[in-house]
Design goal:
By secondary structure, the chain is of the alpha/beta class. The chain is built from 14 helices and twelve strands.
């Protein structure tokens, strides 16, 4: 079986890495194509994957549209040479769904982001199968396959991930130290137009208050203001999950990182106007993520909740206990993806 992957986001490197290794162990041939975004290429390099770069992330709607055409043309040329049996992509992968129709092959998209309306408009009619967590808010009809789990389990489940405390040494930290990670996003996606998330004042207030409890570390998609540079995390991106495991709390705007923390048993504050079905579940069912949607009050309300959590001396212990429940109620997502790909590669 020959499988063509397209990776459009750093999180998708993590999502597919164990799947890729498993498929290759079985003798299947996998080809990775990548859209350059943030540290996606760095991660592919760190894990030793070979790949073809087919494009890069753009900021404006016009440039995104032009880049989409360029990417799809490059993918078509690669597909004509590689001759895949099946195509695989992550969240909102328009390119793979279009290419599948163009070359007459099945395409599978693993999606978890409901509010990406433009991507869904362009992708859904053409994808063969769209696999989503069972808590996904939308009903997408017959082509949707739901499963009990989320993307982050594909690489942070104990079957695949063991935390390495060595990353703490790089930052002068110890296992029992209190440290809070702040994560800011770029708000550059098409579905984020008109939204800005936490304000500069919100961020300042959070840093000021969190420093009363422990070390503050910041990771950001966009350039940091000069006043925050001293807090920037300077570790290689493949070590971030080790750091999240040992963190006391995550505070920020990233759904993926909030969910990663939930799977690791670290509590997270997630500030986003739209939210996600999976972070809703991680709050309501497991109490590991706390969601704040109101852009007018999210800064104040989320900070209050964060401070409440930091005042709990048993926070880490409780997080690990909640994690056990989450893991017990979830499937092995990597094995699920493997089965789906093998099934649809054999179907005309």
């Amino acid at each position: 079986m020959k499988v063509l992957f397209n990776v459009g986001h750093p999180a998708q490197v993590h999502l597919f890495k164990n799947l890729l290794w498993n498929l290759e162990k079985k003798g299947h041939i996998c080809k990775i194509t990548a859209v350059e975004k943030e540290v996606s290429l760095n991660l592919l390099d760190a894990y030793g994957f070979e790949y073809d770069v087919v494009g890069s992330s753009k900021l404006t709607s016009f440039s995104k549209a032009i880049e989409m055409l360029r990417i799809e043309y490059k993918l078509y040329k690669i597909a004509k040479s590689f001759k895949p049996d099946i195509l695989v992509g992550g969240v909102g992968n328009v390119y793979i769904s279009h290419l599948g129709k163009l070359i007459g092959k099945n395409s599978i998209v693993f999606d978890d982001t409901e509010h990406s309306k433009i991507e869904h408009f362009l992708m859904d009619p053409f994808a063969t199968v769209i696999c989503t967590p069972s808590c996904y808010r939308l009903d997408m009809g017959k082509k949707q396959i739901r499963y009990h789990g989320n993307h982050e389990l594909a690489y942070l489940h104990p079957n695949y991930f063991t935390p390495d405390a060595k990353v703490l040494n790089e930052l002068g930290l110890k296992k029992d130290d209190t440290f809070i990670i702040l994560r800011f996003v770029s708000w550059g996606a098409i579905h984020d137009v008109g939204h800005t998330g936490l304000t500069l004042e919100d961020k300042r207030n959070a840093v000021k208050e969190f420093e009363k409890y422990g070390r503050v570390l910041i990771t950001s998609e966009k350039p940091l203001q000069k006043e925050f540079e001293q807090y920037r995390i300077n570790v290689s991106p493949e070590k971030m999950h080790d750091l999240l495991y040992y963190a006391t709390l995550l505070y920020g705007e990233s759904a993926t990182m909030a969910s990663e923390c939930a799977v690791l048993g670290t509590h997270a504050i997630f500030c986003d106007y739209a939210g996600r079905g999976y972070t809703d579940e991680e709050e309501k069912r497991y109490g590991l993520v706390y969601n704040f949607y109101n852009e007018e009050s999210m800064g104040k309300d989320s900070l209050a909740k964060a401070l409440e959590l930091l005042n709990n001396p048993f926070l880490k212990k409780e997080g690990r206990q909640k994690r056990e429940k989450l893991l017990a109620e979830s499937i092995d997502v990597t094995s699920f993806m493997e089965d789906i790909i093998e099934k649809y590669a054999d179907m005309e």
